[in-house]
Specification:
The chain has 242 residues and is of the alpha+beta class. It has 6 helices and 6 strands; from the N terminus they run E-E-H-E-H-E-H-E-H-E-H-H. Helix 1 crosses helix 3 (95-107). It is globular and about 60 Å long. It starts with a strand and ends in a 16-residue tail after the last helix. Bound molecules: 2-acetamido-2-deoxy-beta-D-glucopyranose.
């Protein structure tokens, strides 16, 4: 169930395709290699003959590079000339594409960013900037239960049942993708971004690790032992012990 928005701001669209954005690693910025060599590397990897690895890769000299990159940027804050651009984009459609992209990123000391699923509203696959908040909530349950919780813990919001919309979870995905309530779920098969806008959204995060035992420390140990270089890097992932 989703409280109605109080303003008419459109939401950014969910991204559906898996795009691997290959960026020059900060740690090894001396390794700026020829992007064409990256394409050749992709074709040296195991490949599906019906869909060669390099045929889904875009490098900056490719005339479609900018269009492919911009098509997946829902937030205009990250669509500026000064926004860092990837070294290559792999529009992976098969496991072999993903394997090849990761293998070559490793070989060229490049960093990989994954663009898919809609959880990139903070621009983690670009860079972080600042300002502008919007306030929308989703509760996995019935509205009467949520109103009880909200009016007990956040009475200042004066939330009313008429502020809320109950829907199936899958319909909430359509809602978050910015379509009017009632739109058929089949629109999710079309990953096109229609409404672009400037925005900043923030999730709430716990301040200390949720762990009943020493799980977090154990995960940090495991991460540190199998990926000491932090190749599988994401701001929200288990960190490497320093
Ligand atoms: C751009 O890259 C795509 C995907 O690899 C490829 O199909 C296309 O031929 C390339 N275009 C040019 C002009 O090189």
């Amino acid at each position: 169930m989703i409280p109605k928005r109080k303003n008419s701001n459109k939401m950014e669209k969910l991204l559906v395709l898996s795009l691997l954005l290959i960026s020059t690693s900060i740690a090894t910025s001396q390794s700026v290699t020829d992007p064409v060599a990256f394409l050749r590397c992709l074709d040296r990897q195991p490949t599906d003959p019906t869909s060669p690895n390099s045929a889904v890769a875009y490098i900056p000299t490719n005339s479609s590079f900018t269009a492919v990159l911009r098509r997946r940027i829902p937030n205009l804050r990250f669509d500026k000339p000064t926004t860092p651009k990837p070294f290559a984009i792999v529009a992976a459609a098969t496991w072999t594409h993903i394997q090849a992209a990761l293998g070559c990123a490793r070989e060229f000391s490049l960093q990989v960013r994954i663009r898919s699923g809609g959880h990139d509203f903070e621009g983690l696959s670009y860079t972080s900037t600042t300002v502008l908040a919007s306030f929308i909530g989703m509760y996995l349950g019935r509205s009467d239960k949520m109103l009880t919780v909200m009016n007990r813990d956040f009475p200042e919001l004066k939330l009313k049942v008429t502020d809320c919309t109950e829907m199936r979870w899958i319909d909430s995905v359509v809602f978050w993708a910015g379509y009017p309530i009632g739109t058929p779920t089949s629109v999710l098969l079309n990953p096109k971004i229609t409404n672009k806008l400037f925005m900043k959204r923030k999730s709430d995060y716990v301040k200390s690790p949720i762990s009943r035992t020493d799980n977090f420390e154990r995960l940090v140990d495991i991460k540190s032992s199998i990926d000491a270089e932090n190749f599988w890097r994401n701001e929200q992932s288990i960190p490497v012990r320093r």
